[in-house]
Amino acid sequence: MKKIQVIEVGASIFEENDKIAGENRSLLREMNTVAINVMGSPGAGKTSVLEKTIAQLKSSLSFAVIEGDIKGALDAERLVRLEIPVIQINTGGACHLDALMVKKGLAALPLKEADVVFVENVGNLVCPAEFDIGALLNVVIASVPEGEDKPLKYPMMFKTADICILNKMDFLPYADFDIKRFKRYLGEVSCCKLFPLSVKSGEGFSAWIEEFSDLLCKQRAGLKDIASLELKGRVAIMGIGDRMKADDAVGSLVAELLSKTVKRKNIKIIDAGNAVENYVGVIKRFKPDTVVVIDAVDFQGKAGDIKIMGCGEIEETTISTHGFSLALILENLQKETGAECRIIGVQPVKVSLSEEISPAVERAIQKLVKEITLGLCR
What we know:
This protein has 13 helices and 13 strands.
């Protein structure tokens, strides 16, 4: 009997997509442009939210938009009236935009002149969440008429979101919609920030604009911060973490994922777990030029925030989730090897006994793996 050859099409599609998404992310970082992936059901109000957001901020920020639809250009025609660059992508049947489609759209935009690129994805609560397009932020727009059960029915969409906008609040008196239940369902699958608002009445929109402006400033600063982490010469990366204590595992998980994708003789990646003392000698013998330690660190940031620090900053402003001093470890390595030493701290949500990583820290892990891989390949 002949053996049946099994071809894992899905895996290869996602691998190629993720590679191109990384290229998009690298290009956007080089241009210091923030790309925001806007997702949601047809009719949720994605285009209306973009129209009003851009109109209120275009005097201080420059915008561009990539519009994704199966067919037609009605939404693009609405946005082009704002006198901003708009590229229409028609998928011809595909229910989502992928990284290659977005790459072609970015190539057609004047990125050097754009602070923000909104990518309005195809109206769908399933497929867009599965494809990384290289955006820095994911926004899902839900609406009151859709019902409060959508986070439970489409958990991946809401889990991948950094922000959830609940639109059409003006419809609340006429709908059988329980906003407390929506918040509870959302909290069960995601730690994204919720903004209830109405584009039509303006209710809640000023709070969204204020938060968006603040978030954009932080994201652009963070973009520069990670890009400024020079991974030069012989690089040793050590991840620290206890995999039995929820978010405390962050360093170990990043190291594990990096070791699968980065294979170079001048780069040593170590998953030290809780036994850091067993690997200090290994790093010294490697004779690195750059040492990076990744760990869960309480620096009083928001859940999943990433902060890059030197030895002095750690001791003064942060607390490691472990019993040993990260500052002393780095100072010792710096003294013994002469290497430039940094720590990448991730703000944990919980470090209690559990193997479950919080969504915010999970997103931070994926972001770090992508950004560090890009930095090592520069």
